[in-house]
């Protein structure tokens, strides 16, 4: 590990990816707090119940937990530490340390890009696909380096740390920040002081999200983070294996919130040294890159043992260098990265659909769906693109709306096996009546979802014009409006499709018939329906595995979020594909690294928080 030669004075300053707020060093607690008094508050927080009875109940629970956390924060005021000076003052130290460790630093510099915050600026012309950045393993903070650090003894005994790599990284980050001789200080000192994730929202700002699909994840993120903090506060002050941790005298909720957000907005999956499995990591310098639409351009080179990034496109000198964080929705960007991406080509809203088990035709519909590789109940997505539905959702809706005769045809009729593969292909309607029913259903369902919002799109647009709107309120309202616009497009598309197919029916148009020769169309790489329908969009469920949503329970299966690769906190995919679910399947493109399991995500930057 390359050790910095610069002495540091400690104070607290970490951060975010885009926006940066400089926090002044603490001068000590403003009021004496007895250990017993603090432990009583911590116990109360830890014992708070966590039930998912209803969303309204969760909101009430959130308010209660937040009030308790604010009591704790008030008593801890001034106890957090930060580095003296602004993060900008440490950028030169970061670049010098990176060069000393063997990273590439001659093609860019760190610069401030107004609303986007800090990012990388080209110092020369860079060609598309040119390798311009590499970061050796010895610079990375990983779960493995945590196990070999002062945290290792506690890690060997604590099931939460063993199950949750992201929590391990958060505590690793705090321990190294408190260590004056840590080799990672040049990196840690350049992290934002705070973030724009919902963990930093005021309660009135969270209210803007109440009617959105993101609200449950936002509430869970805060409550789980609070309970994690209470758990580790107790561990740090009572567990024998935690006695040597440099956190006992200064482990505040704000410290933990900062560490959680730093990891959440920056974590990535990389292969272990032997390449046998993946581990979570923070990748200094590379995680300064901001997000744009495109393809994954980062991978891990096992031969040279380094993270490598090639240019997404041609960059002229002085232009900002971007990377693609992965196919995340804006809800995921807001929750896990703290920013709203205006031009998000992959934005979507979730829609939960299922065939009722009490329905007379349930068994037949479930069988047809099973043959197509689609569950009878799942979470789908409506997209911002045209058409707003995927092949999987089209196939589901067709089966959902089938008559008994149509179901029988797809189960035992002529070419039944092959016809299953036409279910997601727009070229082969089941019948004109079936198309009318499915688009009517989609139109109606999207219209009903729109009615759940307390404000209209016009009202949201008017609110966004207010100059005194806080940044977090603006982010929340933009997300709320984006969800409505996707639903409005779905309503419009459903209506247009319904009228089109009604016209086809009224005019007696001939229905395209499937023939054996049509299998060639289905096998075409560009065909609208893949030969084998992939599992439904499970990306939405994967997000719940991430640290921000994980509950403190001794069940490793419930807590392990390391299964979800995240790049730059936003899950920048390494070797990820645009088909990867937006919950954290970001994978880094592996350069010169052979991967047998294409679903394994590795390193390519995940979107970051605006606190870059």
UniProtKB/TrEMBL annotation:
Q: Where is the composition biased (Polar residues)?
A: 1-12
EC number annotated for this UniProt entry: 2.1.1.85
Q: Where is the composition biased (Basic residues)?
A: 13-22
Gene3D superfamilies in UniProt = Rubisco LSMT, substrate-binding domain (3.90.1420.10), set domain protein methyltransferase, domain 1 (3.90.1410.10)
Q: Which InterPro entries match?
A: Rubisco_LSMT_subst-bd, Rubisco_LSMT_subst-bd_sf, SET_dom, SET_dom_sf, SETD3, SETD3_SET, SETD3_SETD6_MTase
Q: Recite the UniProt keywords alphabetically.
A: Actin-binding, Cytoplasm, Methyltransferase, S-adenosyl-L-methionine, Transferase
Can you say where in the cell this protein is located?
Answer: Cytoplasm
Catalytic activity, as annotated: L-histidyl-[protein] + S-adenosyl-L-methionine = N(tele)-methyl-L-histidyl-[protein] + S-adenosyl-L-homocysteine + H(+)
Q: Which GO terms describe its molecular function?
A: actin binding; protein-L-histidine N-tele-methyltransferase activity; protein-lysine N-methyltransferase activity
The segment(s) forming the SET domain are: 106-326
Annotated segments matching region Disordered: 1-32, 555-584
Which cellular component appears as one GO term in the record?
cytoplasm
GO process terms (BP): methylation
**Pfam families this protein is in?**
Rubis-subs-bind, SET
PANTHER family per the UniProt record, alphabetical = ACTIN-HISTIDINE N-METHYLTRANSFERASE, UNCHARACTERIZED PUTATIVE METHYLTRANSFERASE
The family this protein is said to belong to:
Belongs to the class V-like SAM-binding methyltransferase superfamily. SETD3 actin-histidine methyltransferase family.
Q: What is this protein called?
A: protein-histidine N-methyltransferase
State the organism of origin.
Answer: Sinocyclocheilus anshuiensis
